[in-house]
Design brief:
The chain is mainly alpha-helical. It has a domain of 88 residues: Rna Polymerase Sigma Factor, Chain: A (Orthogonal Bundle), CATH 1.10.1740. It is 91% helix and 0% strand. The protein is elongated, with a radius of gyration of 30 Å.
């Protein structure tokens, strides 16, 4: 067996099974671009693993199983990220209320620094009495 035999086998399996793999992955993830990315990633994994471990007994099933597992991992990761973003959004609602009060205070402080405390007090008294 030549050192290039596993690569040739990957190439042959890819040529035969890539259309089926793409169809199954597209149906699974409902996004053709993502399906293409997953299929390409599985091809790279096969090119790395098969020369070391040997070609699988059922290479098309191996490619499909590996791609589906990658897709499931990606879906789970995206769901976790969505939950984290929602949690951050809920936490930021309270932060925005506080930060807007802080922003008002900062603006008044910067105004006070420019015009002096006495001028700020005069403005506040005029505004509050009128």
């Amino acid at each position: 067996m030549t050192p290039f035999a596993p690569y040739r086998m990957v190439d042959a399996v890819w040529r035969i099974e890539s259309a089926k793999l793409m169809a199954v992955l597209t149906r699974f993830v409902r996004d053709i671009g993502l399906a293409e990315d997953l299929a390409q990633n599985v091809l790279v994994i096969a090119l790395k693993k098969w020369p070391e471990t040997g070609v699988s007994d059922d290479p098309d099933a191996w490619l499909l199983t590996t791609a589906k597992r990658r897709a499931i991992d990606l879906i789970r990761r995206n769901q976790l990220l969505d939950r984290k973003y929602e949690e951050i959004g809920r936490n930021l609602k309270g932060y925005h209320e506080v930060s807007s009060k802080e922003a008002i205070l900062r603006k008044s402080m910067s105004f006070s620094a420019r015009f002096g405390w006495s001028r700020q007090l005069e403005i506040n008294q005029t505004y509050n009495s009128g």
